[in-house]
Amino acid sequence: MIRVAIDGPAGVGKSSTAKELARHFGFAYLDTGAMYRACAWWCLHQGIDLDAAQIDEQQITETVGEFFTEDHFDISVDPDRPIVLADGEDISEDIRSSEVSTHVSRVSGIIPVRHVLIAAQRAYIAREASGDSFSQGRGIVAEGRDITTVVAPDAEVRVLLTAREEVRQARRSGQSAHGVGAEDVAKRDRMDSKVASFLTAADGVVTLDNSDLTFEQTLDQLIALVDQAI
Ligand code: C5P
């Protein structure tokens, strides 16, 4: 069982490269950002005010806790079909809306919320060791902000994917055709880096700056890192 942990800021191309890497090796794929986005979507859906100067952290934590313990939430770890469900409804598109993008950091900045998600993410990763899991025990690629440091610091492959800010901003703006509105990635990174350290690599984590690399070149480097670990 190979665990691949990939962290990095917004707009660096983590999701598309991580998904393709998982496909290449027949691994499961876990988009932890989608889990935080689903929580923000769920809170907004429950009528919680995420714009308030003082958000109600306890109410949000309870709401997110119920989202998981009462099985409202589900995510597929199939890289060919990475859908997110809330009460059986496919919310994969909705969680990419600019409304969710602008509010997600407020939810992910609540430490008890992170504890709920970290536990859930560890359970998804642990499940892949079993023969009757999606990857049949082969492995998983998990991507986010704190996977190399907190969720799976003992992963076999740990990578920090980075790119210069203007490159990331341009890539994110270019995604608007796919339903992702242009947004201020620097602002989201500033908020996110208060609770997770993903701007510099932790000890033992390989930094891969893909500012001047094509998608295929980035993927090839990741494949080489996984091959070394197998
Ligand atoms: O990766 P993506 O941009 O979809 O992540 C959405 C948000 O989820 C991030 O801006 C961050 O607030 C949160 N997140 C996090 N920890 C992770 C993954 C995502 O706090 N491991």
From TrEMBL:
It is found in: Cytoplasm. Signal peptide: none annotated. It comes from the Bacteria. ATP binds at G8, P9, A10, G11, V12, G13, K14, S15, S16. GTPase that plays an essential role in the late steps of ribosome biogenesis. Associates with the 50S ribosomal subunit. Belongs to the cytidylate kinase family. Type 1 subfamily. This is Multifunctional fusion protein. It comes from Bifidobacterium thermacidophilum. The chain holds residues 1 to 230 of 707 of the full protein.
